Amino acid sequence: MDMDLTPAQRALQAEVRAFAETVVAASANQRSDDAVWGTDLWRALGERRWPGVVIPTEYGGMGGGALEHAIIVEEISRVDASLGAALNLLQQTVMAVLSFATDAQRRHYLPLLASGASYSITGITELESGSKMTDMRSTARQEGNGWVLNGTKTEVHIPQHVQICLVFAKTPGGVSAFLVDTATPGLPRGHGAGIVGLRGLPMASVAFEECRLPADSLLGHEGGAYDVFFKSFDLTRIGNAAKCTGIGAGALDRAIAYARTRRVGENVVTDFQGIRWQIAELDARLEAGRLLTYRAAQEYTAVGRSTLNSARAKLIASSAAMDATTTALQITGNHGCFTEQPFARFMMDAKLSQITGGTVEILKNSIARELLGKPTNPTP
Ligand SMILES: Cc1cc2nc3c(=O)[nH]c(=O)nc-3n(C[C@H](O)[C@H](O)[C@H](O)COP(=O)(O)OP(=O)(O)OC[C@H]3O[C@@H](n4cnc5c(N)ncnc54)[C@H](O)[C@@H]3O)c2cc1C
Fold first, then answer.
1. Mean pLDDT for the chain?
2. Looking at ligand 1, which atom is closest to the CA of residue 352?
3. pTM value?
4. Tens-place pLDDT, residues 297-337
């Protein structure tokens, strides 16, 4: 497998890095402190078609693959993981619309999503159900020529700015996926929740009460939620791994830049062997996560799935990011301990990235299942 990026991919990487450093970085801390979504920033990403990286050009997207997605998410996350997370989360709806929506829905929504004119959220998690989708309480029942949706999704993002929500609910035939337009009468606007990381992508809960949806809001067949979910599952895991690598690399690079200039007696901080070894080890682990991510991305683009490699990539990259961000704060000492610096933000973003998009435990379960099959005597 060729792990080298093509000249076009390298050019994309350089372009996104320059944009992230010159445009995104300046407001990243402030948006995180204030827990606000950067609508203008999102539009600027859209002008470059980065939200539509995997959307075909006929719908206004870039027509790229999973590796281009990983490159964009990593580079943006080096300065702002909330924005990287937003780019990644969006792909759940993109893949659902591409694969299961009607032609009219594709022609309507995909250009809006690709251009940054709109955004979409995913509603799966509820107060009493997280890792296990079948525990959910939300329901949809058929009525007349449509569906009626009820339930509360506790962890959805920025509902006041979105155009579509990808919502999962129980129907008589199993768990089903619905494409819900926010223009739907009665669709609620959620209340913000005070999340501790990835704060530039604010979190809210949304309660659907007798929300009436048209017949074509059902994606795929009734009970087909898993088909919809798994269409984007590995792609967003790849994006999540790339986000983690970006967080870790961004934190470490900034810590090194400071430590090179910080004198302690006769030395600068990067002269100390104890510090050099930590940096060397973290660099190796981040690179391992990046290569696993590239491998998973190539596999996904080739065959449409990469369950084992995307889980491996996210497991390794998220633990490298967690350790890189805590070490970055340690290396910068007192300097890193203030909110004007990005180090605490990086650390919290890394921690939440070990929960969102596949917790560490669920990733290990996925890897073990791929290697060993299902347990013969499942324990709780
Ligand atoms: C920043 C962020 C963004 C998010 N965005 C969204 C979103 O856009 N849409 C959405 O629907 N949800 C979203 N979520 C929710 C996220 O998907 C859930 O947090 C995740 O699925 C885990 O569910 P839970 O938190 O309810 O944990 P639980 O399912 O309650 O699990 C609790 C703990 O038990 C562990 N555990 C569970 N099952 C097993 C098992 N079989 N073996 C071993 N350990 C196990 C888990 O790993 C976890 O550590 C987001 C979460 C975060 C933090």
1. 93
2. 53
3. 0.95
4. 999 999 999 999 999 999 999 999 999 999 999 999 999 99
Residues 6+ apart with CB under 8 A from 7: none
Rounded to whole angstroms, what are the CA distances from 244 to 19, 28, 81, 84?
Answer: 19, 16, 8, 9
Is residue 165 a contact partner of residue 206, using CB atoms and an 8 Å limit? Answer: yes
How many angstroms is it from 358 CA to the middle of ligand 1?
7
**Distance between CA atoms of residues 177 and 147, nearest Å:** 12
CATH 1.20.140.10 for the 226-372 domain, yes or no? yes
Task: Provide the pLDDT for residue 155.
Answer: 79
Residue 131 has pLDDT above 90, yes or no: no
Report in angstroms the alpha-carbon separations of 350 from 31, 41, 167, 173, 319.
17, 22, 26, 38, 8
**Of ligand 1's atoms, which has the minimum distance to the CA of residue 168?**
11
| DSSP assigned state of 25 | H
Please name the CATH architecture into which domain 120-225 falls.
Beta Barrel (2.40)
